[in-house]
Write a structure and sequence with these properties.
This protein has about 170 residues and is an alpha/beta fold. A 6-stranded mixed sheet has the order 6-7-8-9-12-13. A 5-stranded mixed sheet has the order 1-2-3-4-5, with no helix packed on it. A two-stranded antiparallel ribbon has the order 10-11. It has helices spanning about 20-30, 50-55, 125-140, 160-165, and strands at about 1-5, 10-15, 30-35, 60, 75, 80-85, 85-90, 100-105, 110, 115, 120, 150, 155-160. A hairpin with a 2-residue loop joins strand 10 (about 115) and strand 11 (about 120). It has 4 helices and 13 strands. It is globular. It has one domain: 4-Layer Sandwich (Metallo-beta-lactamase, Chain A).
Length: about 170
Amino acid sequence: MLGRESARDALLIDPGIFDEGLLRLLEGNGFYPRHVLITHAHQGHLSGVRTLRKIYDPALYALEPDALEFPAERIAEAHPLHLAGFTVRVIATPGHSQDSACFRIDRMLFTGDTLLAGSVGQADTEYEKALLLASVREKLLSLEPGLLLFPGHGPPSTLEIEQRFNPHLRE
C-alpha cells in the first residue's frame, strides 16, 4: 500500500489477501484505497480484491482486464498513470504470464512474479522462460540499479543486487 500523509487516497498493488492486518493498516492511517494495480491475473495476487471492492470500491488497473473476473481499466506502457498522488510507470513483462506487468513508482519497482529476490517467475514453456528473461534484462535491468525491488512474494531487494547475484540473470 502506498499513500501520502497529506491525503487520504491510497494505492494498493496485488492485494492477494484482505485481512484484519490490512484493514487496520488502512483504517489506522486514515487511508482510503481508491486504486488497485494488478501485476497479473493469478489468484495469489487477486484474492483480496473481492472484499476490497465490497468495502471501498476502488478503481482497478491491469494490462489485460479481460483476464480478470471483475471490471478493470486497461493500462499500457506508453501511458503513465497518476494515482493517489503518485506517478506510475507501467512496464509490460510477459513470460510468467501474458498479462504480467511491473510498476515503477518513484524509487520503487513492484515486480509481481516477474523478478523475485534471487529468482525469476515460473514459466510453463521454454519460450515463455526466454520471454520472461528477455523482459527482465531489456526492460528492468536497464533501469537505475538502486531501485528498491518489491516482488509479489518473498523479501525485497534492489535491481543492483539482482543483476549481480541472481543466478537466473547470469549470461
